[in-house]
Write a structure and sequence with these properties.
Length: about 350
C-alpha cells in the first residue's frame, strides 16, 4: 500500500510539474450595439454585432521547451452575439501550431491571420475597426468578390494551409507566409512594420486562381503614422487589382485613408477619419467617407463607443471602395450611427 501511495504521489508531482510548464488561456470579445442607417441596406435600425471589434472566442497556449524556445497553439472562432449563431467552419479564424524564440522568431503552421493584413492594420486610420474602416476595402479587394474563399484565402484576412515566419528586430517587425496550393490556390502574404514616434508599414498579398499558378488578385499598401503628445495621425494607401476566372482584369482600386486620434483623457479617445476610394476601371465610381468616433474605457476590459459615418457614393460606386460592411446605396448620400459596448475576457 505504501508503495502504491508513493507511486501515486510521484505521478501527481510529475504531472503537476509538466502542467506548470504549459499555459492555456481562454479569451474573446463580445461586442454589441445599435446601428441606425439611411440609404444603406435600404435603411434600418438593428441590434448590431461587431461595431469596433468582432465577437470572438478562442484558446491559446504555450509550453516552455527550455532555452527560450516555446511551442504555441491558437484556436479561434467568431460568432454573432446578437443571435448566438456561429460559423460553419468552427475555427474559421485561427487553428495553428508552431514554435517561437526571442532570438530566432516564430514559425507557425495552419490557419492564421494574414501577415499582410496585420501590417496594414498598423497604419489604417481606424486600426481596422470592425466597421467603418479600411478592413472592408481590404476584404472586398482581396478576391472575395471574384473567387470568394478559394480555400486558402478567406476575405484576405485569414489564410489557410499556410506556413509563416515572423521576427522582431528592434523597432522593425517582418512577417511572411505562403499558403500551399494543394487543390485550391496559393497565397503569398508579406508584412513589414516599423514602430516608434513615427510608425511605418508596408504590405503585399497575392492570390492565385484555384488549381492554377495564375495570379488573380494582388493587393499592396503603404502607410505612416506619427504621435505627438495626445494626437496620433495616420495616412494609408491601398491598391487592389482583381481578375475574373478568365483572367480578365475587372477592378483596379485605389483607396486613400487619413485619420487623427485625440486622446482627451487616459481612458477616452476621439477619432476623425476620411477615406476616398475609386475603381479606375469604372467611371463615376468614387466613394468618399467621413467617420467621427468616441471610445470610452470603463475598465481595461469594457469599452463604450459611439461612431458615425457619412458616405457619398457615386452612381457606379461598388463595394470595392466602401468602408461600410455591406456597402451603401450607389448614387446617394448615406448616414450611419452606431453605439454599443465591447467587453473583452
Amino acid at each position: 500500500m505504501k508503495k502504491k501511495l508513493i507511486g501515486i504521489t510521484t505521478l501527481a508531482l510529475v504531472s503537476g510539474a509538466a502542467l506548470a510548464q504549459s499555459t492555456v488561456t481562454v479569451y474573446g470579445n463580445v461586442d454589441l450595439g445599435l446601428l441606425v442607417q439611411s440609404n444603406a441596406g435600404n435603411g434600418s435600425t438593428q441590434v448590431y454585432n461587431g461595431g469596433i471589434s468582432p465577437s470572438i472566442w478562442g484558446f491559446r497556449g504555450s509550453e516552455d521547451l527550455g532555452g527560450g524556445l516555446k511551442a504555441n497553439f491558437n484556436l479561434e472562432s467568431h460568432f454573432s452575439a446578437d443571435t448566438g449563431a456561429g460559423t460553419a467552419t468552427f475555427f474559421r479564424r485561427q487553428s495553428n501550431v508552431g514554435f517561437s524564440s526571442p532570438s530566432m522568431g516564430t514559425l507557425t503552421l495552419g490557419n492564421m491571420y494574414s501577415p499582410a493584413v496585420l501590417a496594414f492594420a498598423a497604419t489604417d486610420p481606424r486600426g481596422l475597426r470592425e466597421n467603418f474602416s479600411g478592413l472592408y476595402p481590404w476584404a472586398y479587394n482581396s478576391g472575395a468578390l471574384t473567387i470568394g474563399n478559394n480555400g486558402n484565402n478567406d476575405v484576405g484576412v485569414f489564410i489557410q494551409n499556410a506556413i509563416s515566419y515572423s521576427n522582431t528586430l528592434g523597432p522593425v517587425s517582418i512577417a511572411g507566409a505562403y499558403s500551399v496550393s494543394e487543390t485550391k490556390g496559393a497565397v503569398v502574404s508579406l508584412g513589414l512594420t516599423y514602430s516608434g514616434p513615427v510608425s511605418l508599414s508596408a504590405a503585399y498579398q497575392a492570390t492565385n486562381l484555384p488549381t492554377t499558378s495564375e495570379e488573380q488578385c494582388v493587393m499592396y499598401s503603404m502607410g505612416a503614422g506619427y504621435t505627438m503628445g495626445v494626437f496620433t495621425g495616420k495616412l494609408n494607401f491601398l491598391h487592389g487589382k482583381n481578375k475574373n476566372a478568365a483572367l480578365v482584369e475587372t477592378t483596379k482600386v485605389d483607396v486613400l485613408g487619413l485619420g487623427l486620434d485625440w486622446k482627451t483623457a487616459s481612458n477616452n479617445t476621439i477619432g476623425f477619419a476620411y477615406y476616398t476610394g475609386k475603381d479606375k476601371n469604372t467611371a463615376s465610381s468614387t466613394t468618399n467617407s467621413f467617420i467621427l468616433s468616441d471610445e470610452y474605457a470603463l475598465s481595461k476590459r469594457t469599452t463604450l463607443y459611439v461612431q458615425a459615418a457619412f458616405v457619398n457614393a457615386d452612381a457606379n460606386a461598388s463595394l470595392v471602395s466602401s468602408i461600410v460592411a455591406g456597402g451603401t446605396d450607389a448614387g446617394k448620400n448615406a448616414s450611419l450611427l452606431n453605439f454599443g459596448v465591447k467587453h473583452a475576457f
